[in-house]
Design a protein that fits this description.
Elements: E1 2-5, E2 9-10, E3 16-17, E4 20-23, E5 30-34, E6 43-53, H1 56-60, E7 67-76, H2 84-95, E8 99-102
């Protein structure tokens, strides 16, 4: 059983899709007693995860779901022997009001005994221990050929420390030079012509 959501569903990555398929897909139901001192009858909280598939064909092909959410419902003690999935589907229809029932795919409903005070914990079957066949002995390992010893390298001469350099005395500033007077141009000299 499942629901076809006729509304537009927006995935976490922003992709929008109509006709997504909502199903409990073999999820475990959890039932625990709700402590309410005002109630005349004991109430229980039923919750389970539900999966949203791309469409019904994806669910029937056992493809991965696109979202995983949780739903819960409060039920009185008198309803504990009824179908708890039906109670949770009723809650889903409140969350997704524009849906269509699809009854062709039914989840595997685990039979959970009703325990009024202790919460129901799913039983995990233990796999039987299977004896292991004896192991054949392994062929002996061949010894490793020893490697020739490495000859030591000649020692390196120690570095001789260099004597520290003495600081140079500061240089006395040079007195400023007086500017030179401009040179007066001289009249050109007539060349002497030999006679």
């Amino acid at each position: 059983m499942g629901l076809i959501n006729l509304d537009n569903y927006v995935c976490a990555n922003g992709v929008q899709k109509t006709n997504t398929y909502i199903s409990f897909a073999n999820e475990t139901l959890y039932i625990r007693q709700a402590f309410n001192s005002n109630a005349t009858e004991s109430t229980y909280t039923v919750n389970a995860n539900y999966r949203i598939f791309w469409d019904q064909a994806a669910r029937e092909a056992n493809l991965s779901f696109i979202d995983l959410k949780s739903v819960s419902a409060s039920v009185p003690k008198s309803m504990l022997n009824e179908n708890m999935y039906a109670c949770l589907y009723k809650e889903l229809k409140l969350i997704y009001p524009n849906t269509q029932d699809e009854v062709n795919v039914a989840p595997v409903v685990p039979v959970v005994p009703v325990v009024p005070v202790v919460p129901v914990v799913p039983v995990v079957p233990v796999a039987p221990v299977v004896p292991v066949a004896p192991v054949e002995p392994v062929a002996p390992v061949e010894p490793v050929v020893p490697v020739a010893p490495v000859e030591p390298v000649a020692p390196v001469e120690p570095v001789v420390p260099v004597a520290p350099v003495e600081p140079v005395a500061p240089v006395e500033p040079v007195a400023p030079v007086e500017p030179v007077a401009p040179v007066e141009p001289v009249a050109p000299v007539e060349p002497v012509v030999p006679q």
